[in-house]
Amino acid sequence: MNAAVATSIFGAFMVLTVVLGLLAVRGRGSGGGLTEWSVGGRSLGTVFIWVLMAGESYTSFSYLGAAGWGYNFGAPVLYVLAYMSCGYAIGYVVGPMLWAYARRHGLVGITDMVAHRYGRAWPGTAVAILATVCLLPYIQLQITGMGVVVSTISYGAISLNWAYFLGFAVTTGFVVVSGLRGSAWVSVLKDILVIGTLGFLAVYVPLHYFGGYGPFLDRIVAEKPQWLTFPGHASGGLGQGWFITTTLVNSLTVVIFPTTVAGYLGARNADALRRNAMYLPFYNVLLFVPMLLGLAALFIVPGLVGADSNLALFKLVVDSLPAWAVGVIGVAAALSSIVPMAVFMLVIGTMWGRSVLGAIPRLAHRQKLWSQLVVVAAGALALLLTYTAPNTLVRLSLISYEGMAQLVPMLLLGLVWRRLTLSAAVSGLVVGFTLVCVLVFTGNDPVWGMNAGLVALAVNVVVALAVTWLGPRAADDRPDAEVLALEDEFPREGAPRDGAPGEAGVAGVARGTGEAGASASASA
Amino acid sequence: MRNQFSGGRSPGSRKRPALLWLLLPYVAFLAVLPLVNRVTPTVLGLPFLFFWMLVATLLTPLSVGLARRADRKRGRA
């Protein structure tokens, strides 16, 4: 009976999700090309950008991993809050900068930006492949996250393997057709459910189990003080140094993370991004809920170990609520897998359609089609890996992040500093990425109490500077304004600069599509 | 139309001192960590570290807002 109720609610919402995702592009035909699909035609306003970017950053990790880390370690889980907040703050500068650069030159992602900045196609291709390796684990993480949630909230009626497949099918079902715009529409449903259910749980759980917040917090302070400060409980080196270095490197990485950049580029104008740098941090307050409920679970379901601790929050939900409520909360958590998964698949598709397959002259005229095919292929590959190589993935996602961090000098430093040469940026990237792999796979992360990604990033920058100063000078005679992201077009009062800035720059790297012009007219 | 400070030189020469506000979250979350890494005193029942992290989270939109306000003033000038 319980299983039937919860499963029906879940099934109904999954259908609604696909319908909503598809409705997003109703009446838009199949026109618009890659820009329309990958970055929503650069047409999303402040509200949609908020919903989308909140939606894609609040992943299944927030429900599972955050509660699990809170349960296992306590305070170290606060790093999520810290790096996302700091990342939103520097996104105030980086977001409009990348947006304006992409808009001026008709670019749709970071691989595209790299190719344009260095005036060659192959660095974009290389970055696309590297980023795909880093992002695939995230898709798998969302699939497994959705699997355990769905199987738990259906009281076991839906098996893990079916739940994995459902996650893949629902996501692919809309993102292939409707791209970023569809993800934004589904995010509306997701954010409403997430805010509603977490708000409810934040009040209900302490009241139900402890008789209110006061007694709940008093009991944690009295009995579990070890969880409440760094380095937390049995965290194996996640002390203050780790927290500070992780927050630093992650906050730099999150602003160039391909999914974040997809959100930036979807904006209608730069001011939508500046406003959101201000409004998005409020969403982070919600992260306290799974963290605190993870701590609450210590008293209610003690003794969870390993991957089971990720279910700390859901054990409370299933234990204390009627089936319909379990179903609704399960939908919120499932959508927290689906929306980020959709954007991850979308950016992998975009990177390949544009910078890998699209870089082959014979294939360049069908970039959107290749992107859509790669979406399906990437999702299917991640699903296959989930069946054949399941594992606890929080660690793997940390490796991905530290690897992506190594792109920061090539992209951000490159866009503001003309002298950085291609050979220097590539050298730094290769050394940094290798160092991350060595440190992580030899079990040396944290290294000397610091995040290995930050250590590797420091070495990366030193190598890049050294090669720039000592190595060959670049032979690139394009003007600075063409190569760098110098101007982020701050709108003047009364003269909003929404419209197309000078399209002077399209001549740089040959593009097969002429989309820069198309997108400019689409938003006029 | 183009900012007079950006004339082809390094972008660091653009004068936007208000962007220093964006470092405030780093101060609140990271620089003062050794001082706030404690359970007591509890505030509103929250252990001090968690209370402080809530304060820092709410400071973030404020610091971005201050940077934006200065930028908007500059835009009008």
TrEMBL record, chain A:
**Region: Disordered, residue numbers:** 487-524
Which Pfam families does the entry mention? SSF
**Matching InterPro entries:** Na/Glc_symporter_sf, Na/solute_symporter, Sodium:Solute_Symporter
Keyword terms, alphabetized: Membrane, Transmembrane, Transmembrane helix, Transport
Q: One GO CC annotation, please? A: plasma membrane
The protein's predominant localisation is membrane
Gene3D superfamilies with a match to the protein in the record? Sodium/glucose cotransporter
Question: Mind telling me which PROSITE patterns this protein's record contains?
Answer: NA_SOLUT_SYMP_3
GO MF annotation: an example: transmembrane transporter activity
Which membrane topology term applies here?
Answer: Multi-pass membrane protein
Q: Subcellular location, in the record's words?
A: Membrane
Q: Does the keyword Transmembrane apply?
A: yes
Q: Where are the transmembrane segments?
A: 6-25, 46-71, 77-101, 121-141, 161-180, 192-211, 242-267, 279-301, 321-348, 369-387, 399-417, 424-442, 448-470
Q: Where is the composition biased (Low complexity)?
A: 499-524
Please indicate which superkingdom the organism of origin belongs to.
Bacteria
- What family name appears in the similarity comment? Belongs to the sodium:solute symporter (SSF) (TC 2.A.21) family.
Task: Kindly provide the name given to this protein in its UniProt entry.
Answer: Sodium:solute symporter family protein
What is the organism of origin for this protein? Streptomyces kasugaensis
TrEMBL record, chain B:
- UniProtKB keywords: Membrane, Transmembrane, Transmembrane helix
Name any one Pfam family assigned in the record: DUF3311
Superkingdom of the source? Bacteria
State the name under which the record lists this protein. DUF3311 domain-containing protein
Q: Does the keyword Transmembrane apply?
A: yes
- Indicate the transmembrane segments per the record: 48-67
InterPro entries xrefs: DUF3311
